[in-house]
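Standup notes, structure subgroup. Blocker cleared on the pyridoxal-5'-phosphate input:
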Amino acid sequence: MQMSRRILGVGGDGSDAWDVYERARERQAAGKPVVMLTIGDHDRTTPRPILDAMHRSAVGGNTGYAAMRGSASLRAAIARRAAERTGIAVAPEQVVVTAGGQAALFAAFIATLDPGDAAIIVDPYYATYPLTVRAASGRVLTVAARPETGFQIDLEDLAAKAAEARVLLINTPNNPTGAVYSERTLAGVAEIAQRHDLWLISDEVYDVQVHDGVHLSAAAFPGMAERTLVIGSMSKSHMMTGSRLGWMIAPLPVAEQIGDLAIATTYGVPGFIQDAAEYALAEQSALEDEVAELYARRRQVALAALAGSNGLSLTPPAGGMYVMADIRGTGLTGKAFAHLLLEEEGIAVLPGEGFGAAAAGHVRIALTVAEDVLQDALRRLARFADRLARGAA
Ligand code: PLP
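Run returned:
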């Protein structure tokens, strides 16, 4: 039997980013120690009060089908949070609650692309982006964000490709690079999006994790609210990755239409998880600061541990929960480096190649272990890179 071209075409670029992760999991299963600096999952579980709220809601009876676009009160809470953070008015009806930010990304592409239409993503990119565009029957175009510019978007490259595209996806604070887009970058993005009549999908799931500068939302730039779909999530800000609770904030007609996709796919997010998210937004706002501080501290530890290495260099991340290290001085690809590092040092990082051509020769280090473990692992990583670089010289 022949499967659809669509499903067969979803994989490819971006889908092999997890090779090292799988290998690391196998090593762990075989009883060998591994320091896991791979995927962007917290090393802490969802805080107990949020789980208690989830439990109260479920035991209290909220176990049936839930409101498909999200409960009115959760949508209102998300709209309030967005308005407070961006300074623009957001109506609860513009919010659609989804099964994580990832489902919101898929919904956003379904809402804005017809089959064969091109979506621009910024390279390096979060590894699910190309798969998500293809799953929505779209075509991927990339524009570069280079280390020399602190991984800000190359606006000339963007302007040159915009005429061919219908959608532009940006992500700030950025995974994997840690870039926080400047006002200049976002003003350039807004101007190009308007000139070429592009939809803008703005992935802001790391909005609380800013170490340098401030997070700006493209939706707040003049003329952008009506063409921008903002993606948000409880995964990073409230340590709720497994709960799968995200959202899209969209212009009203999009938010209304997108309900049809919920009917065809998830039929809504479980009500007790929605209630837990609402509780977390109302009662656990200090957690957002804790998360920000935790990753800011780990970033400092990482930068200190990697400083002075001749085998690698890096652009300090301004946000997010990762460090991208340039290991081209070792003479290896990111993939070869990551595999060797796992074999020889028991440290798992992800190869840059999985995040796009612009990240080749880099590795992404997730700051997802305790500070002492991180410090030891990254000192070893730096020495490992130094040894390889001496061998390559
Ligand atoms: N966008 C970016 C840039 C991410 O890094 C992630 C997860 O790592 C997501 C979206 C999706 O997050 P979730 O589906 O858990 O909300």
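Discussed briefly. The pocket of pyridoxal-5'-phosphate is lined by residues 40, 100-102, 126, 171, 175, 203, 205, 233, 235, 241, 246 (CB under 6 Å).
Next: hand off to the docking folks.
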